[in-house]
Structure formats: C-alpha cells, structure tokens
Design goal:
Length: about 140
C-alpha cells in the first residue's frame, strides 16, 4: 500500500507541475481532447486505459530488459510512452513521460516480487494518477 501511495505522489505532483510549466511556456500547444460521456469516461480513464497500458508497458519492458540495463530500459519506456501520447496531442507527450518514468521504475523494481505484483502496483498508481483528471472532466462537462 505504501508503494502505491508514494508512487502516486511521486507521479502526480511532478506531473501536475510539469503540466503547468508546459501550459505556461507553450500556451498554443493543445492538450488531449477527451470526449466526456458520463461515468463511462471515468471508467475508461481510471480502469480500462491504465490496465491495458500497464500490460503493454510490462511486455515492452520485459523485451527492453533483455536488451538493456534496467535504468536504460526504464528511460526508453518513458520516452516511448511520451512519443505515443504525443501522437494524440503534443503537449500531452511533453508531460506524460514523467508518469511513465515512475510506472516503468515501479514495474522494474516490483517484478522481483513477481510480475503480477508489479502489474498490480503499476495499475493502481496509474489508476490513481488518472482519477483526478477523470473526475475533473466529468464534473466540468
């Protein structure tokens, strides 16, 4: 539980600050456009997306760890996720690399306790990270 709470804080607080910085320095760069459809949007952002992205990230990291030392695998993973999210919105990619740096680190550290434990920890941190923005979207719509 402590890993999830610490992971959430280390992910979310710097990502929020990074988001504010990107918005201030590049106000013309659009963020992601996420259509809001009630609670289904919250479920998509808080449950489905973190689960699928965690599985994809875990598979990619397992391959990267065969080719690279852990720290470089983590960096490559976070850069890859930043690029992938930039395809949807450039500003998003400038911010999202940080959470995925933490998610990737958590996965690599916790995989020693078992891959299922690592996936569970990362999914929980990712879901908590997405909860605030999902609720903001829901209540601002």
């Amino acid at each position: 539980m402590r890993a999830i709470l610490v992971g959430w804080a280390v992910t979310t607080i710097p990502a929020l600050l990074l988001s504010l910085l990107v918005s201030a320095l590049l106000p013309q760069v659009a963020g992601p456009e996420i259509p809001v459809n009630g609670l289904s949007t919250v479920m998509l952002l808080v449950v489905f997306a973190p689960f699928i992205e965690t599985l994809i990230m875990a598979a990619a990291l397992e391959i990267l760890l065969l080719l690279l030392p852990p720290r470089f695998a983590v960096i490559a993973s976070s850069i890859g996720w930043g690029i992938a999210h930039s395809l949807a919105a450039a500003a998003w990619g400038l911010v999202i690399w940080w959470p995925f740096l933490i998610f990737s680190t958590l996965y690599v550290v916790w995989r020693g306790q078992g891959r299922l434990a690592a996936i569970g920890i990362v999914f929980a941190v990712h879901a908590l990270n997405n909860l605030g923005p999902a609720l903001l979207l829901l209540f601002s719509a």
